[in-house]
Write a structure and sequence with these properties.
Helix 1 crosses helix 3 and helix 7 packs antiparallel against helix 8. The protein has 3 domains: about 170 residues, no CATH class; about 70 residues, no CATH class; about 70 residues, no CATH class. A hairpin with a 2-residue loop joins strand 2 and strand 3. It has about 325 residues and is an alpha/beta fold. About 30% of the residues lie in helices and about 20% in strands. It is globular, with a radius of gyration of 19 Å.
Length: about 325
């Protein structure tokens, strides 16, 4: 998963409506996919960050593509396409969000407008307005205004301030409409460094068996698991891509685990110990923040983002550690007594 915050590009003087493929090729032109040869974990991380920096830098390089912070873009609908293309580019070097969805509710990421700037974040609770309101608070330090979630017409969900007129093609979602929580949890597991597919170096048969078991646990038994493509030359299966249109999970082989000395892996060790205690949500949240602090990680400095999702049907609080620009810590569990 990758969080990208940038000013919304405003393309001018470009006649006609570009196809999804054209947009993808445009992104590939200035953000080429990672090389085919195997990469070390450190190089995978550097490649991921370099690609996203190039995406942002290229958007800013052309003054005609910039806009005042609070200006409303004339054509927001097309923004979702290059964002998806950026994620396509990252498949070989970073955790991958779902790219093909039968509707926005099948997506596992969100596009949130926060004070005139767009942030692409992983979905967490299934409530897009709630997730974007929480991100607004993190980014600005103030409570979000009233927000409205829209199906943006290109397979995703965009959340805008209620007083902003949506672009053509956007369809407002009724209050209470939820994203597919099982898919969100599945993607988090695929990218999880604590107990998920990214927690160790798994070969293809083991990864396929683990993934099928997790699908069944989440009530997605009808889905199928595909092995990594032959073009993947990584030695470890470390993530996957959800395709709601075909109900498949396509596994991807990457370079391997991050070094044991990295913040991500050091934190994962601490989180595994905490998860074993089967404590309620509020207790686990305190323990996780304490563990992160001992490692020198600060929530205020955006070294990590912690999200608590209340689920009183769960016997214990689970912890997912996903990485993409920052460390996303997602806690799901019962509230304390």
């Amino acid at each position: 998963m990758y969080r990208m915050k940038r000013h919304v590009p405003q393309r001018e003087g470009r006649p006609g409506h570009m196809s999804d493929l054209s947009e993808l090729e445009e992104l590939r032109a200035f953000a080429p996919p990672p090389p085919i040869r195997p990469l070390t974990p450190e190089r995978f991380v550097r490649q991921k960050e370099a690609v996203m920096r190039e995406v942002v830098r290229s958007a800013k390089a052309n003054p005609s593509m910039s806009r005042p912070k609070h200006a409303v873009p004339r054509n927001r609908r097309r923004l979702a396409i290059p964002i998806a293309a950026a994620l396509v580019v990252l498949v070989g070097a970073a955790a991958a969000w779902t790219l093909v969805a039968s509707s926005g509710r099948d997506s596992v990421a969100l596009q949130c407008e926060i004070e005139g700037t767009d942030a692409i974040i992983p979905a967490v609770s299934g409530d897009p307005v709630s997730d974007c309101a929480a991100q607004w608070k993190r980014e600005s330090g103030s409570d979000a205004p009233r927000l409205v979630a829209y199906d943006n017409g290109v397979g995703g969900i965009t959340v805008l301030p209620a007083d902003e007129k949506p672009p053509s093609g956007f369809t407002a979602l009724h209050a209470g409409v939820s994203q597919n929580v099982a898919m969100i949890q599945m993607q988090q597991w695929l990218d999880d460094h604590v107990a998920g597919l990214s927690s160790d170096c798994y070969d293809t048969p083991t990864a396929m068996q683990m993934t099928q078991q997790e699908l069944e646990r989440l009530g997605m038994a009808g889905w199928t698991v595909q092995p990594p493509p032959s073009t993947d030359h990584g030695r470890c299966v470390g993530t996957g891509i959800l395709d709601a249109a075909t109900t498949t999970v396509s596994l991807r082989a990457m370079g391997g685990q991050l070094p044991a000395s990295s913040d991500v892996e050091r934190l994962a060790v601490e989180l595994r110990s905490i998860a074993q205690d089967c404590a309620p949500l509020d207790t686990v949240a305190r323990q996780v923040r304490s563990a992160a602090s001992r490692l020198g990680l600060s929530e205020d400095a955006h070294d990590y983002e912690l999200t608590e999702v209340k689920d009183d049907s769960a016997p214990c609080t689970t912890i997912d550690e996903n990485v993409g620009g920052t460390i996303f810590l997602i806690l799901r569990g019962p509230s304390g007594s």
